[in-house]
Amino acid sequence: MSKSRNRLEQALAEAADIEESPDRVVRTDVVTTRGGRRTRTLQVRFNEDGLADLEALARARDLPVSTVARDILLTQISQIQAAPNSPLAAIDEAIEALTHLREMAVVRPSR
Description:
Blueprint: H1 3-20, H2 48-61, H3 65-82, H4 89-104
């Protein structure tokens, strides 16, 4: 029997086993969520430096990059919604954003 045919039969057997026991844990290193509150995806493009900064913040906080990005975005949205028309609101928001970034700041080695 060929190697690829053997792998195909093994995959089919695994698929049948999964279908028979859908709640069985297949991989312990992966957390699967179904439904839940977060069901939409936003794709954002970063340049290398921006992504490196975000990854460094995530490492410093011991959180996934997506969690840190979501936190920053939602913080900014709530601040904008709190006082969108005040002339001083933009200054206050900038100060708060800078303070937030300073608290999470990680020193990157210079290039």
